[in-house]
Design goal:
Layout: H1 2-17, H2 38-47, E1 63-66, H3 68-74, H4 76-113, H5 119-174, E2 178-181, H6 197-207
Parallel strand pairs: 1-2
Helix pairs in contact: 3-6, 4-5, 5-6
Length: 219
C-alpha cells in the first residue's frame, strides 16, 4: 500500500516538473537472500567492486514506447511491400497448379496404359514422372525462398534508409532518453504522451509510401 502511495507521489512530482514524455517506473521488489557462508558474501562483494554508484535519476529521463507491430500494419510502404510479395506468391501458386495438373494427367495416362506397355517402357515413364515430381518440388522450394529473400532485402532497405532515421528524428525532436518496445511494456493510465507510434507512422508515411521489391530469381 505504501509502495502505491509512493509511486503516485513520484508521478505527481513528474507532472509538476513538466516532463513532456511520460516516464515508465518499474518497481522491483528485491527479496532477502540468506547467504550461508561468509565466503560467498566476500565473493559477491569482490565481484561488485568495479560497479559505480552513479546512475541516471528519474527526473532526467524522457521515455517513450513504440509498437513495431502497429508500424508494420499501418505503414504505407510496408503495406505495398506485402502486396508485392503476395503477387509473386500468387504467380508461383498458379504456375505450380498448372504443373500439378500436367503431372496428374501424366500419372493417369501411365496407370491407364500400364497393362499394354512393356516393362521397360513402363519403368521409363514412371522414372520420368518421378523426376518431374521431384523437379516441381525443388522449383517450388527455390522460388519460395527467392521471394522471401527479395522481400527481406526490401524490408531491410526500408528499415535502414527510412524507418530508423524517422525514429531517430523523433527521438531527437522530443529529446528522449529511451524508447521501449511497446509490445513488452506495461503502461499505466496516468502516463500521458508516452506512445509515439502514431507520430512515427505519420512521419514514415510522409517520407516513403512505396518500396520496390527486386524481382525474385526465377520470375
Amino acid at each position: 500500500m505504501s509502495e502505491t502511495k509512493e509511486l503516485n507521489s513520484i508521478v505527481k512530482n513528474y507532472k509538476k516538473i513538466g516532463i513532456v514524455a511520460a516516464v515508465v517506473i518499474a518497481i522491483v521488489l528485491i527479496g532477502t537472500f540468506v547467504i550461508s557462508s561468509a565466503r560467498k558474501n566476500a565473493s559477491m562483494a569482490s565481484a561488485l567492486e568495479g560497479v559505480s554508484t552513479t546512475a541516471t535519476t528519474a527526473s532526467e529521463l524522457r521515455i517513450a514506447v513504440i509498437n513495431m507491430d502497429k508500424i508494420q500494419l499501418d505503414s504505407k510502404a510496408l503495406q505495398d511491400l506485402r502486396k508485392q510479395r503476395a503477387s509473386y506468391e500468387d504467380k508461383l501458386k498458379a504456375k505450380m497448379e498448372k504443373e500439378q495438373k500436367s503431372l496428374e494427367k501424366e500419372k493417369a495416362d501411365i496407370e491407364k496404359n500400364q497393362d499394354v506397355l512393356s516393362q521397360e517402357a513402363l519403368q521409363r515413364r514412371v522414372v520420368d514422372y518421378q523426376r518431374r515430381v521431384n523437379g516441381l518440388q525443388r522449383d517450388l522450394n527455390e522460388s519460395a525462398q527467392a521471394i522471401d529473400v527479395s522481400y527481406q532485402n526490401a524490408l531491410s532497405t526500408l528499415q535502414k534508409k527510412h524507418l530508423d532515421p524517422v525514429i531517430e528524428g523523433v527521438i531527437a525532436k522530443k529529446k528522449l532518453s529511451l524508447v521501449i518496445d511497446g509490445r513488452m511494456a506495461r503502461v499505466g493510465n496516468t502516463a500521458a504522451d508516452l506512445d509515439i507510434t502514431n507520430e512515427v507512422v505519420d512521419a514514415l508515411n510522409k517520407k516513403v509510401s512505396t518500396i520496390k521489391m527486386d524481382k525474385p530469381k526465377g520470375f
